[in-house]
Amino acid sequence: MTTKPSFHSDRPAEKDALGWSDFAENLARSLPLPEGSESLVVGIEGTWGSGKSTLIGFVKRSLLAQGNADPKASKPIVIEFNPWAMSDTFALDEELITQISVEIGNHSGVKFLKVAEDLLLYAGFVNDIKWTKYIPKPRTKLSERLLEAIGFVSQKVQENIKECLSEIDLGKRKSDVIAGLAALDRPLIIIIDDLDRLPPKEILLIIKTITTVLDFPRTLYLLAYDKSIVARALRSDNEEDGLRHLEKIVQAAYRIPAPSQPQLKKFAEEKISNLLTGLKITLRPFEEPLYEPAIDQVARLSRHTRDVVRTVNRLLLILPVICKEVNVADAIVFEALSQRFPKSRENLCPHCESILEEISILSHPSAEHLSPEEWNMWKMLAAKEKTQQGGNPLWSVFLPEDSEGQQVAEGACRFLFSPSQDTSAMDGLRIAAPGQMDRYLQCITIDGFLGAEKAYEIFSNSENLDAEKAHAILSDPEKLEQELSVSDGKELSLRLARLGIYIPSCSTLDREGCMEKLIDKSRSTVDFEASHTISEVMWKLLRHAACTLDEREKCFLNIVQKASVPVSGSIVCDVKKACDKNHPLLKDNAFLEESIRKWIERAREAMEGGLGGRSLHHVLHRLADLQNGSYAEVHALTSTMCETDNGLDNFLSGYYYLRKNDPRRTLYTPFYLIEDPEVLARRIEKYGSLMDHSWLVDILYELPPVPEWHLVISCENQRAQ
Q1: Which pLDDT score is estimated for 714?
Q2: Residues 234 and 211: beta-carbon distance below 8 Å
Q3: What are phi and psi of 189, to 5 degrees?
Q4: Residue of 116, 193, 347, 439 with fewest CB within 10 Å of its CB?
Q5: Which residues lie below 8 Å from residue 114, measured CB to CB, with a gap of 6+?
Q6: In the predicted model, what is the mean pLDDT of the chain?
Q7: Which pTM value belongs to this model?
């Protein structure tokens, strides 16, 4: 029987992960006060989550261990009091006194019971004659609890105490308690944790009680608190005055330092490694190099071990769902970022599409399937928007406002979203690859579910996810053919896009079979957008992590020879760009050069055969790309083509998609195909054509003269490189 990892509670840690045991043991040795000592207050100071309760636990264990080894007479009486756990915070002083009395009275011997009784009587008179609460009548649960715990041995006191009120001397009562404690010959150590969780009035009440009412000799109070919170409670939010007052109250204070980065990294690595082992998740080759940097990011994002624990709890919920869909290292960092900065996550998620669009545009290899006109148009628009942001990435506007938070959040965002020159960005299921972030958020968003338990149940059932269906289609070419048997270009694009998300994570993928079906579909599809999506899916198939060089070359050759010219042109350019960046997609350059030559021959034949519209423009841009960015042949071809009305219509129809938007937003890119825009404008005006292209005339006249035109192209080519 195997057990799944369980969620980590927020209780104090039992195991010493930060090397605090030695300090706790040494402190425990010094806490029991010797005979004749005055009351003393010792503070353990730290922010929430810094580990105060954990350190208190280590001290308490050390005290008990040392007490067992020492002679009984010197063994301290250790009393633990957590005001946050009390049911009635308006009577915390009484609860504290009761707890001390109970712990003393629980020790065997009449003298312990007598001290407990004297303490209750003394405190009862001090607290506005509230002693009647302790008279053993079955009127309150507290009185029953007290009687059961320590009992009252003096029935006479119970019967006559009211009659003796006028004779009671509070000083004598306190002296009786002090004398009784001295007779016990046992130091008191009273531990009060979570003081900073109380409202200010209750904090002040506890402080006053231990410094004025319970300031007995040989009694040490060990308080755990956030220094700034208690200081504000002492002086009505005037923290500076409160700190000075706190210094008078606490005779010795020990500040818990923030864990060092090596400590947090070691702690995070241990917790996450145990989690992966428990979930039976083995890192894949493309995840292994990123794992240690991801742990570094978790350490930087964590202020203390509690942040790490909460991140691990988040991962326990989502890793079983997304481990096959998204890079595990990215999931680790994204959840650590979400844990530390939930507001940044809330702001990032709705805008992830534009953020990832910037990544794809600027330099992400998985976006290299874009046509030249789309590539340059989006690249320049993104660069313009980035300039407006002061040169910062788009995600920078969602960083936290404080400088420290910005620094650590920026490091995590660069890990997740910065453009990468590594071809593994898509094959490695990186969260920044197109489609992966969307898939990730689709899997982990639990809004609308009835709690985490229900969400975990849904996520853990693979039948509730789309991945199983997509993997089944990608593993069977016949099922893929059925899935793509639609004539509507928009619907075909949507289906292909959905399947493309699951290609990197499909371990049963039939790459060659799927490629054959896509090649067939490319020849029967006239819709430009659908052809574009087909090339995207082909590119993912070629770059699948399990694809061997031999298999890749075989598929690539089939694409060059059999796929539609626009689709095969995209793939050829993608492969060339990857090889230019030394990505080993093919065995040698000779094979690539021969493939490029074959495609150029097919492209020329297709243009002679009447290829038109956006597909024609796409092929012309690809032709220039494969001729080292030279548009010489392209300009010659377009000039000849536009000499006839049919050829002019065929060429200019490729610009019709611009009529829906302002063509000037393209920043000239689609017009690279025209050597002299003014000549073409006069050609349209003078000779006309079979279709109306007059809307283009003004735009063509506005384009730069030829010398400036070539300068624009040259500058953009340099930026692209």
Answers
A1: 45
A2: no
A3: -125, 115
A4: 347
A5: 153, 180
A6: 77
A7: 0.60
